[in-house]
Amino acid sequence: MRFVASACVLCLFGACGDARTATQAGERAGALIAEAAEAAEAVEVPEQEPSVDPEPSTEADVPSGPSARDETYVAHAIPVEAGYAAGSLSTFAVSIESQGEWHLNELFPFSLAVEGEGLNFPKDTLAQTDAAEWSEESARFDVPFTPVAGEHEVRATVRFAMCNPTSCVPKTAELALNLAAR
């Protein structure tokens, strides 16, 4: 590459064909190339962090479990009883709490969908109007179900939006909770 650059510089200085001029042009080209190399080494390139989407993700930041969280909220699926009676209508709770300057958006089409083997849900999708408690700071849903005997995993998908003074961001929290019925 350096040879090609030197040859181009020589031709630019009109030294193609004249030996003495070619030597002088070659010296000038060498000096220019050396200066450019020094300048390139002297430039400090700041380390760049990996590119990050400016909008927070709409998907849960943690794998399924009884809790999900990010910088805007904390969500929990909580058993209401230590053990459940098979065949009896029972409930477990799902709660969402805002974090910092964030709050729940009451105008967003909220939904809480639940499913689980061996569990019968009178209503498998709940809306904001089904909340036991709702405010900008937190929400709680008491989810009714009737279990058969045994260990069961209930999965809840919560769709909501968190807002701060400058933006609103849709969120999805995936929760999983183990329930035992005797």
Folded structure, characterized:
This protein is α+β, with helices and mostly antiparallel strands and 182 residues long. The chain contains two helices and eleven strands, in the order ααβββββββββββ. Strands 1, 2, 3, 6, 8 and 9 form a six-stranded antiparallel sheet that branches. The N and C termini lie far apart (79 Å).
- Gross geometry: elongated
SS summary, helix count: 2
The profile of the biggest β sheet is: 6 strands, antiparallel
Strand content: 35-45%
Q: From N to C, what is the helix and strand string?
A: HHEEEEEEEEEEE
**Care to count the β-strands?**
11
- What is the end-to-end distance? 79 Å
Integer-rounded radius of gyration: 33 Å
Proportion of residues in helical segments: 10-25%
Low-confidence stretches: 1-26, 28-34, 39-63
Mean pLDDT: 77
Class by alpha and beta content? alpha+beta
Question: What's the gist of this structure?
Answer:
With 182 residues, this protein is of the alpha+beta class. The chain has two helices and eleven strands, in the order H-H-E-E-E-E-E-E-E-E-E-E-E. Strands 1, 2, 3, 6, 8 and 9 form a six-stranded antiparallel beta sheet that branches.
Write the layout of secondary structure elements.
Blueprint (H helix, E strand, L loop, with lengths): L1 H11 L6 H24 L24 E3 L3 E7 L10 E9 L4 E2 L6 E5 L3 E2 L4 E2 L6 E2 L3 E10 L2 E14 L4 E14 L1
Antiparallel strand pairs: 1-2, 2-3, 3-9, 4-10, 5-7, 5-10, 6-9, 8-9, 10-11
What key phrases describe this protein's structure?
182 residues, alpha+beta, 6-stranded antiparallel sheet, 2 helices, 11 strands, 19% helix, elongated
